[in-house]
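Example S7 (structure tokens).
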């Protein structure tokens, strides 16, 4: 299907996207894509640098007549979120993304597409290899590990870049010009527990929550999407309260920045309650489906009888953990009082893994206000510590404070209106962009973020709009032509 993709306009962008998507590039496994990008720059005869953490920098001189314009840093991240549907057979470590066209959209077969942030990377590649596009001096910055820690941006040292303007190509609405973003912090709660032999009078069941949309835990946290971990805990809590349900294993969610789509639990109940337990699970599942019928029409709860598990969690630990998960804040915590419709602070209950005497609960807390971020993080810490967990904070990164007087913002606002006959939406977003981190070592750089329409990022429903990419590409070309003098 990549042949079809390569025929789309603008061909120079889509061809580079197809080449990029043939390279496995999971976060923290970027060795192959780093080598790919290094070879790309060197084959063009351009100065190519791989810094000590793995970021790739490719520098291209200005085109004729543009030598006195301000040097522009064009920035995107190389890694992508690797998510697939449970029934999709796919090896992210060895296979390229299998893409296809569906009307006005490019999609992937059962996996994430990698448009986040592959379309930004492909855009920059097209500019670097061009011979007829007017542009100032370009410093292309391809960072690593944006999706699971932003360690590439954090590790980028000052002095490697000389540009005065940074164009971050990692926004997912084509009518939006981004001027700020949230910061984030990972919260990980762990503890061990004692297993008990499952009593002979108990029987086993598997409970599965699936069919949820999932999505980006920043950009889509306000949409009321279902969280598989919260739904599963509700089922387990109800089963324990009414039928003495005991937990053997739970495996729910995955990446911290993806809203959990699926969860699976192995449980045991008293055999005498089998019929009423199944009836209750049907009833509570129906209730949850009604609550989420608008946002999650494909939600499924499947309860299947199985071999009785050999062991179950210690009762006291089970009670504490299920109560802590019930109390865990998930979704929007506070809306901004200063910027209309902006989520200020949120949390994503991303991962619940209970197995082999070990508990791991992972959250990603975001906020555009640093103190509010830490306040919610400490709320979660207290919740988990009350049930005997050890709690670790990691991956803390700053937000990006909006600068409404940005010179490049004024240029881009006018260009957008001239091209499209309407004003752009200038906004801060609740996602984590690298601009705030990059600004710590490059505080005088004027930064803006924008991009084409991408829906369902971080989920197998991820898709990129073809007509929007064309609109965005024209905008990119106009911006480069109108970069101001130094």
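Recovered sequence:
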């Amino acid at each position: 299907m990549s042949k079809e993709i390569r025929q789309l306009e603008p061909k120079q962008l889509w061809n580079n996207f197809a080449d990029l998507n043939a390279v496995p590039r999971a976060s923290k496994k970027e060795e192959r894509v780093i080598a790919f990008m290094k070879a790309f720059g060197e084959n063009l005869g351009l100065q190519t640098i791989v810094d000590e953490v793995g970021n790739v920098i490719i520098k291209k001189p200005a085109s004729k007549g543009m030598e006195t314009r301000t040097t522009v840093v064009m920035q995107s991240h190389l890694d992508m979120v690797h998510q697939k549907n449970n029934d999709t057979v796919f090896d992210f470590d060895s296979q390229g993304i299998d893409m296809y066209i569906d009307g006005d959209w490019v999609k992937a077969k059962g996996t994430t597409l990698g448009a986040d942030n592959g379309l930004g990377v492909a855009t920059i590649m097209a500019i670097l290899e061009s011979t007829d596009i007017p542009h100032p001096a370009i410093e292309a910055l391809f960072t690593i590990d944006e999706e699971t820690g932003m360690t590439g941006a954090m590790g980028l040292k000052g002095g490697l870049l000389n540009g005065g303007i940074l164009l971050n190509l990692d926004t997912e609405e084509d009518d939006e010009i981004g001027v700020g973003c949230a910061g984030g912090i990972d919260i990980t709660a762990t503890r061990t527990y004692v297993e008990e032999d499952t009593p002979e009078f108990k029987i086993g069941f598997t409970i599965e929550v699936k069919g949820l949309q999932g999505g980006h835990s920043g950009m889509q946290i306000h949409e009321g999407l279902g969280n598989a971990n919260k739904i599963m805990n509700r089922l387990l809590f109800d089963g324990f309260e009414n039928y003495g349900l005991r937990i053997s294993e739970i495996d729910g969610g995955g990446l911290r920045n993806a809203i959990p789509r699926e969860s699976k639990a192995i449980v045991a109940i008293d055999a005498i309650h089998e019929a009423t337990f199944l009836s209750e699970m049907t009833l509570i599942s129906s209730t949850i489906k009604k609550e989420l019928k608008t946002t999650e029409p494909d939600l499924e709860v499947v309860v299947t009888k199985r071999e009785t598990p050999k062991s179950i969690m210690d009762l006291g630990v089970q009670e504490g953990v299920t109560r802590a998960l019930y109390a865990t804040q998930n979704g929007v915590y506070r809306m901004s009082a200063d910027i209309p419709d902006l989520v200020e602070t949120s949390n994503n209950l991303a991962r619940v893994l209970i197995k082999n005497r070990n508990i791991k609960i992972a959250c990603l807390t975001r906020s555009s206000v640093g103190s509010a971020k830490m306040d919610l993080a400490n709320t979660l810490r207290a919740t988990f510590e009350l049930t005997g967990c050890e709690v670790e904070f990691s991956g803390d990164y700053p937000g990006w404070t909006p600068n409404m007087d940005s010179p490049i913002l004024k240029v881009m606002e006018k260009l957008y209106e001239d091209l499209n006959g309407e004003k752009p939406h200038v906004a801060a977003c609740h996602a984590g962009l690298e601009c705030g981190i990059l600004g710590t070592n490059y505080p005088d750089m004027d930064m803006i973020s924008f991009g084409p329409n991408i829906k369902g990022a971080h989920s197998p429903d991820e898709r990129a709009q073809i007509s929007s990419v064309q609109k965005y590409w024209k905008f990119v070309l106009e911006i480069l032509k109108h970069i101001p003098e130094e």
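Notes on this example. The chain has a mean pLDDT of 96.
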